[in-house]
């Protein structure tokens, strides 16, 4: 079982953040055996397919290189120019083959962990020079697997190579008795098939190495439960900090809410437990809007602010509970409460006219009808 430096067992799978951090550092699953197998196999197949064309092109290149005019014999720089021209022709001839190998090398290297570039992974690290850590890596499970892979490659590739050479020895010796063109074509085919057969043995090694690299990469990134808890604290914040932030957010929300109380048209109370503040602008609002609400201490503060700004306070326990339970801040009241609130606002406007202009005092508002589905019994009031 893997352990960290403190001796704690790494039993938990790596989190997405751990995987992302590892990728940023260049720690991704890679299989050198898969890369080597793919390049060798692709090169062998390409030689078999392109042997005829490469043989003809190489034959023409050699004829041109060894067919030297008499005038060039007396030119000091003629041989240098001919060498440069021959090298250019050779590169152009081998360019498709080299491009194919480059594509296969890149594709086989990123097939496991994807593409990732990290400057941190190529930066020099003094810890890699520590002989104790080097011995620890040498005698680790990964070191043992690397040793077994090296022995397997030696015996498999060496054995298959010996068999291929022994079986094709007569064909290779026969190349010396053939014309240049056919000999070049035959040599390309023999070398290509030899590479294909040798690379085929590496498929067995890659089939073992790829699962091991994936398992070892996951093992190295495993975490302890304490590491997961520390990561959660780091990403989400410590509980005491989060609690303080929520407290400040509540205070700011209540402060903004209290600033809306002086703008309200009426405060509906329970009379002491609940308090809700309603505002209605006939030109801008389709229905009355809840601008403040609260219970206990918050309700007392709403009543205090309303009293200081001469906002009417009306007692209607059932209506106050219904508005508090079914309406969010800065939203209009439910349609089922339109009639009751309309009667309430009409009474408040009549009181406002009475206080400003005098005349007969409006009659008491009376009981307001609240739909049954919106009623909140006093026994189940929410704190």
Describe the structure.
- The protein has 383 residues and is mainly α.
- Helix content is 63%, strand content 5%.
- The protein contains 13 helices and 4 strands.
- It has a 4-stranded mixed beta sheet with strand order 3-2-1-4, sandwiched between helices.
- The longest helix is centred in the middle third of the chain and has 42 residues, at 180-221.
Low-confidence stretches: none
Kindly report the spatial arrangement of strands forming the biggest sheet.
Answer: 3-2-1-4
As a percent range, the share of strand residues is 5-15%
Cα separation of the termini? 51 Å
Q: Which class best fits the helix and strand makeup?
A: mainly alpha
Number of helices, counting only DSSP H or I runs of 4 residues or more? 13
Could you give the count of β-strands? Answer: 4
Q: How much helix, percentage-wise, in residues?
A: 55-70%
C-alpha-based Rg, rounded:
43 Å
Oligomeric state of the chains present here:
single chain
Q: Helices and strands in order, then pairings?
A:
Blueprint lengths: L15 H9 L7 H35 L11 H33 L8 H4 L8 H8 L2 H27 L1 H6 L5 H42 L3 H12 L2 H22 L5 E4 L4 E6 L9 E7 L1 H12 L4 E3 L1 H10 L11 H20 L26
Helix pairs in contact: 2-3, 2-8, 6-8
Summarize the structure.
The protein has helices at 16-24, 32-66, 78-110, 119-122, 131-138, 141-167, 169-174, 180-221, 225-236, 239-260, 297-308, 317-326, 338-357, and strands spanning 266-269, 274-279, 289-295, 313-315. With 383 residues, the protein is mainly alpha-helical. The chain is elongated, with a radius of gyration of 43 Å.
């Amino acid at each position: 079982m893997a352990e960290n430096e403190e001796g704690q067992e790494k039993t938990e799978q790596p989190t997405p953040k751990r995987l992302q951090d590892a990728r940023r550092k260049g720690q991704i699953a890679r299989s050198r055996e898969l890369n080597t197998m793919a390049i060798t196999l692709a090169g062998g197949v390409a030689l078999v397919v392109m042997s005829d064309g490469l043989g003809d092109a190489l034959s023409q290149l050699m004829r041109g290189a060894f067919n030297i005019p008499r005038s060039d014999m007396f030119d000091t720089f003629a041989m240098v120019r001919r060498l440069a021209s021959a090298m250019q022709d050779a590169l152009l001839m081998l360019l498709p083959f080299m491009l194919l190998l480059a594509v296969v090398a890149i594709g086989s290297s990123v097939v496991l962990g994807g593409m990732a570039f990290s400057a941190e992974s190529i930066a020099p690290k003094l810890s890699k020079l520590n002989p104790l850590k080097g011995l620890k890596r040498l005698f680790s499970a990964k070191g043992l697997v690397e040793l077994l892979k090296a022995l397997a490659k030696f015996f498999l590739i060496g054995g298959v190579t010996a068999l291929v050479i022994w079986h094709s020895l007569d064909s290779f010796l026969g190349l010396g008795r053939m014309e240049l063109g056919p000999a070049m074509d035959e040599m390309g085919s023999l070398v290509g098939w030899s590479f294909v057969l040798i690379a085929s043995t590496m498929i067995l090694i890659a089939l073992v190495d790829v699962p091991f690299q994936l398992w070892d990469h996951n093992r190295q990134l495993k975490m302890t439960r304490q590491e997961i808890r520390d990561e959660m604290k780091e990403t989400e914040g410590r509980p005491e900090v989060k609690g303080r932030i929520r407290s400040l957010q509540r205070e700011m929300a209540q402060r903004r809410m209290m600033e809306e109380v002086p703008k309200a048209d009426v405060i509906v109370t329970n009379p002491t437990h609940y308090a809700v503040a309603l505002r209605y602008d006939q030109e801008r609002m389709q229905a009355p809007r809840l601008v403040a609400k609260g219970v206990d201490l918050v309700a007392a503060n709403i009543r205090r602010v309303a009293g200081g700004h001469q906002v009417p306070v009306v007692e209607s326990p059932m209506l106050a509970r219904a508005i508090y339970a079914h309406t969010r801040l800065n939203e209009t009241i439910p349609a089922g409460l339109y009639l009751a609130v309309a009667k309430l606002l009409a009474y408040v406007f009549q009181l406002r006219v009475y206080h400003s202009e005098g005349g007969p005092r409006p009659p008491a508002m009376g009981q307001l009808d609240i739909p049954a589905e919106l009623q909140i019994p006093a026994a189940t009031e929410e704190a």
